[in-house]
Amino acid sequence: LDLEKIDHGRDQRTTFMIRNIPNKYTQEMLRSWIDESHKGTYDFLYLPIDFDNKCNIGYAFINFLDPRTVVSFSKSHVGKSWSRFNSEKKCDLSYARLQGKGSLIQRFRNSDIMHQDVSYQPLLFHSSGPCKGEPEPFPR
């Protein structure tokens, strides 16, 4: 990540991988952790799960509404320890291959994950308007 490029508007990417997540974190725990400092700043969150072990696989995808939000998110979280489970892992962030809420919806809309328990499915949030930041149903 080049935070200076992002801060000066020369990098407009909004979708990132949050990496080094302790395996016991659930998607709800991750969301709560993000919301402590960045509630309402993202419109997509997904923490992939290993269904055999019922644990996450160590990374999640997030799409920020504004690319510059990643600067404050990085300063708050990157390189820092996780708040639960006494893990030695440090939060890291990298660019995701797919970029933007629309691309993420397309990728997961017909995925087998959408037939799993709702707690394992990607989360969508309203991107604007009076419901900004509130949960939004995933289009089928």
From TrEMBL:
Keyword RNA-binding: yes
GO molecular function, one term: RNA binding
Pfam hit, one: RRM_2
Domain Mei2-like C-terminal RNA recognition motif: 13-109
UniProt keyword list: RNA-binding
Protein origin, superkingdom: Eukaryota
Protein name: Mei2-like C-terminal RNA recognition motif domain-containing protein
Organism of provenance: Hesseltinella vesiculosa
